[in-house]
Write a structure and sequence with these properties.
Length: 304
């Protein structure tokens, strides 16, 4: 089977299932496991590499309003790869090539490859995508074993959290974008609950949304946790002065207590693949370092 992934999380799932040798093409954003950076790229972006967060937000809103895509397929490269399977998603119009473009492309490619759409809305949905792709790609046993391991890790965090008193669980404001602020959506509220926090901005299973800064201030979070969608930690840190200039910043309980964390949203919290469980462990350690140890090999969320 020749597989082309149109989504970084799908690339990670394919490799986790032992199908790395079948992966022949990826997106310009796929970066894990590291070897995939050398594979042919089948997508291009319209977002300038040096755009500010505010400019990216404006471009996204403009494109969504006009139904124009932010990403496009490199059809000559895709045709040359002759894939049997295209793995994409229809969950977020910001994150990948438009579903309609992928479907149209599949109809013109040699052999008419199968298109699989992954649309996880929750942590459980993410686990199910591994099982779905495992069945389709003939790696059902590997998928079941992987999901079982991930479930054990989730349960280990949840069991430790169960011993934490309600009054010791911090109120958490999770931001997945800074300029303008967006709360953490979809699976992130559930991650916060499993890790032992109380999400004061989001609702489990619901998309992220533009969040007025006054809402953050009014929520008086004990912890401010920032994992910008698509940004590594270093890029997110560039935007932190924007938050520091906001009215009421210095009075936030999280700021006064020194509990503002900035982490790698690109690798973890905004990527619905196997490393979403790493995200739970990183978050849990930040919220309750004396209860939740950080597994070997994982970097702690950095304090601001």
């Amino acid at each position: 089977m020749r597989i082309v992934s149109l989504l970084p999380s799908a690339t990670e799932i394919v490799c986790t299932l032992g199908l790395a040798d079948s992966l022949v093409g990826v997106t310009h954003e796929c970066d894990y496991p590291p070897f995939v950076k050398s594979l042919p790229k089948v997508t291009r972006t319209l977002i300038p590499h040096d755009a500010t967060s505010r400019e990216i937000d404006a471009l996204v809103r403009e494109r969504l309003a006009t139904s124009l895509a932010l990403y496009s397929l490199d059809m000559p490269t895709l045709e040359a790869l002759r894939p049997d399977l295209l793995v994409t998603q229809a969950l977020c119009d910001v994150c990948a090539v438009a579903e309609a473009e992928v479907s149209a492309a599949a109809c013109t490619l040699p052999g008419r490859p199968r298109v699989v759409n992954l649309e996880p809305q929750s942590l459980e949905d993410v686990l199910q995508t591994l099982l779905t792709l495992g069945r389709i790609a003939g790696r059902e046993a590997e998928a079941e074993a992987t999901v079982a391991t991930l479930r054990r890790r989730i349960a280990a965090v949840a069991d430790r959290t169960a011993a934490i008193r309600a009054e010791d669980r911090p109120r958490v404001a999770f931001l997945e974008w800074i300029d303008p602020p967006f709360n953490g959506g979809h699976w992130n509220p559930a991650l916060i609950e499993i890790a032992g926090g109380i999400d004061v901005l989001g609702s489990a299973g619901r998309p992220s949304r533009t969040t007025a800064w006054s809402e953050v201030v009014d929520a008086r979070p004990d912890v401010l946790f920032i994992a910008c969608c698509g940004f590594p930690r270093a890029r997110a840190l560039e935007d932190m002065p924007i938050l520091e200039r906001q009215p009421g910043w210095s009075e936030l309980p999280a700021v006064r207590a020194g509990r503002v964390y900035v982490t790698d949203g690109n690798s973890y919290f905004s990527r619905p693949g196997p490393r979403l469980v790493d995200s739970i462990e990183i978050l849990a350690h930040a919220l309750h370092p004396n209860v939740h140890p950080l597994p070997a090999g994982l970097g702690a969320a950095g304090r601001w």
